[in-house]
Amino acid sequence: MKFSNQLTVWYLHNKRDLPWRATKNPYYIWLSEIILQQTRVDQGMAYYFKFVEQFPSIFDLAAASEETVLKLWQGLGYYSRARNLHFSAKYVVNELQGEFPSKYKELLNLKGVGDYTASAIASICFNEPTAVVDGNVYRVLSRYFGIDTPINSSNGIKEFKQLAQALINTKIPGTHNQAVMEFGATVCKPQNADCNNCPLNNSCVALSKSIIKTLPVKEKKLKIRKRYFNYLVIKTKNKTTQLVKREKGIWLNMYQFPLVETDKPINQQELIEHSTFNELVDFNTVTIKLHTKSVKPHKLSHQHIYTKFWIIETPNSLKFRHSWSDIKKYPVPVLIDNFLNEFNYN
């Protein structure tokens, strides 16, 4: 109880003024938690305001098209979050008559909601004593108690969840959970932890043993996969181009230029010999140039994507129906959005 009390007092005096802390509406809490998965608060804040403005209720979100939701989400990454958010909104409206689930176990039925998100909503909105365990909580608990069990191992996940549950203040579980997370985000940080001003520095095992920088422990990461994307950017005399909808993998249901994916970098000759290129255009009627020779990887959690944009100018515009003037209306991956922002297609 001492652990919880100290952090709660600290939290009440030092918490950041965040918009979702001014409400217990489960729709808004759920929205904020989904946005903040894999996203920093400073980046996610703008998206939270955009979603609340455009979809003030879960009914508004459920009534929107998936394309509209993806477009609003554009640039935030991990797009499965947006698709799951939209799917679950429709589920709540259509199957639960708009009544948001109020129990931890019921919340787990929402697509895209796991233990952490269900615990956060249940404790903050409905006062259910279910402990949250996220990256901040792992870090605080591993350091304070000196635990070196890998946090991404099955044993570690179980051990830290049990410990977090044992520590929770059952009278104010929502405040307790937010206190531990806020403390990890602002004081017990991954780098440069503020141990001098830590309210727990007299009883922290990691500090007493000078092992702050070695905790928490993570098992070795998966090997990074390298992928090579060659986008075929059609540019016709009538200012049209071609977009296609992704049907699998990353960026599902978002739009992109026709894609040639290879297992290594390719040159122009190799490109024009590829079947996808020949199905799209007649080599004898087009001119080809590379947008830029420098290729910087687009880094995702377990893969690096090396992208080239091949500009293909053709007089034939009959089969290319997307107007350049409308292209910004479509939800696209951020690397394509960056290209569009710098490319002169007039």
TrEMBL record:
Keyword Hydrolase (UniProt): yes
Reaction(s) this enzyme catalyzes, per UniProt: Hydrolyzes free adenine bases from 7,8-dihydro-8-oxoguanine:adenine mismatched double-stranded DNA, leaving an apurinic site
Pfam families: HHH (PF00633), HhH-GPD (PF00730)
Family as reported in the entry's similarity comment: Belongs to the Nth/MutY family.
Organism name: Gramella jeungdoensis
Entries under NCBIfam families matching the protein: mutY (TIGR01084)
UniProt KW 4Fe-4S keyword: yes
Cofactor, free-text remark: Binds 1 [4Fe-4S] cluster.
Keyword annotations of the record: 4Fe-4S, DNA damage, DNA repair, Glycosidase, Hydrolase, Iron, Iron-sulfur, Metal-binding
Domain HhH-GPD residue range list: 35-186
SMART domains registered for this protein in UniProt: ENDO3c (SM00478)
Cofactor: [4Fe-4S] cluster
Domain of life: Bacteria
Xref: InterPro entries: A/G_AdeGlyc_MutY (IPR005760), DNA_glycosylase (IPR011257), HhH-GPD_domain (IPR003265), HhH_base_excis_C (IPR023170), HhH_motif (IPR000445), MIG/MutY (IPR044298), MutY_C (IPR029119), NUDIX_hydrolase-like_dom_sf (IPR015797)
Enzyme nomenclature, EC number: 3.2.2.31
One example GO MF annotation: 8-oxo-7,8-dihydroguanine DNA N-glycosylase activity
Function: Adenine glycosylase active on G-A mispairs. MutY also corrects error-prone DNA synthesis past GO lesions which are due to the oxidatively damaged form of guanine: 7,8-dihydro-8-oxoguanine (8-oxo-dGTP).
GO BP annotations, alphabetical order: base-excision repair; mismatch repair
Protein name: Adenine DNA glycosylase
